[in-house]
Specification:
Length: 128
């Protein structure tokens, strides 16, 4: 039987007016950082292969990685590495059945964001 009230029902919220929950944002960011880390690994492998191939190939990729754009890519990869690591630790804790309440999920989300910032800055300071 046809639904005669189809026009009177509210529409589903669209992404422009719907605010994603923090857990959804952290999940999406975890997937994005995973892809980003894969691309960064390809870049590092390219650097190794160029080093083994010839001096000119190594100088080309090394010049790219030591440029401002290369440094931004490496810093972005570092942020992705720390975020993905800390969020994975949080997921391991969840696998034990702990910290699954909504309040705890939100608190640990903020801990992951803060930990990512702190660990990235500390890594940059200690490496340089």
């Amino acid at each position: 039987m046809a639904d005669v009230n189809r026009g009177n029902r509210p529409l589903s919220p669209h992404l422009q007016i719907y605010r994603l929950p923090l857990a959804a944002i952290t999940s999406i960011l975890n997937r994005i950082t995973g892809v980003g880390l894969t691309l960064a690994a390809v870049l590092v492998i390219w650097w190794f292969v160029a080093g083994a191939a010839s001096a000119s190939a190594f100088n080309a990729i090394d010049g790219f990685l030591t440029s401002i754009f290369g440094h931004l890519i490496l810093i972005g990869s570092l942020v992705a590495l720390w975020y993905h690591t800390l969020n994975s630790i949080r997921h391991l804790i969840w696998d034990t059945g702990r910290m699954m309440a909504v309040e705890q999920v939100e608190k640990t989300s903020y801990v992951v964001f803060a930990g990512t910032a702190v660990m990235t800055v500390l890594t940059i300071l200690f490496v340089m």
